[in-house]
């Protein structure tokens, strides 16, 4: 029997990894953060990451490298996860607030001023992205529309990692998973529709 709970993360399940992602995001809003005793100007780091060409440009930044090293120390990362993390970082620097609770895709379907945050046609464009660069651009647009409502950082990262792993499998002509609820497109559609009603 398949588990149809699509809001539960399936790649980023390690509690330490979740904390690393949220702590990293929180630092981006501080001028004088001191994680691990090191002084970091998070706002300057955010500004640098925003100036870079998404998603490849962020891979050259200290903010990306620090996050990658910390994640790699607590969870096994595949080679394709470097690109997934680059997309996540490119998108995350445009998020205003971290908001837990509902999943990222469910948040896109939540009504803001009597209509879904992301209209069905925009959500369909997001779902139709076939290349990492296109996905990145669509996600940046989506989180900007969320604005001050915030985004579930961990859920966003989990979805991006799953999307990139599925993309890599398609590049290598590997079969899709038999469990439909473990496929990113179905997970996001299910979550979006559950809150867009």
Write structural notes for this entry.
This protein is mainly alpha-helical and 197 residues long. The chain is 56% helix and 2% strand. The protein has nine helices and two strands; from the N terminus they run H-H-H-H-H-E-E-H-H-H-H. The protein has helices spanning 15-27, 42-51, 62-74, 80-92, 104-109, 120-127, 132-146, 153-171, 184-196; strands at residues 111-112, 115-116. The chain has a two-stranded antiparallel ribbon. Helix 6 runs antiparallel to helix 7 (132-146). The longest helix has 19 residues, at 153-171. The model has no long low-confidence stretch (mean pLDDT 91).
The share of residues in extended strands comes to: under 5%
Percentage of residues in helical conformation = 55-70%
Sequence of strands across the biggest β-sheet: 1-2
What's the count of strands? Answer: 2
Q: What are the segments in which pLDDT stays under 50 over at least 5 consecutive residues?
A: none
Please give the radius of gyration in angstroms.
16 Å
Please provide the ordered H/E string of secondary-structure elements: HHHHHEEHHHH
**Count of separate DSSP helical elements:** 9
Largest sheet: 2 strands, antiparallel
Mean pLDDT rating: 91
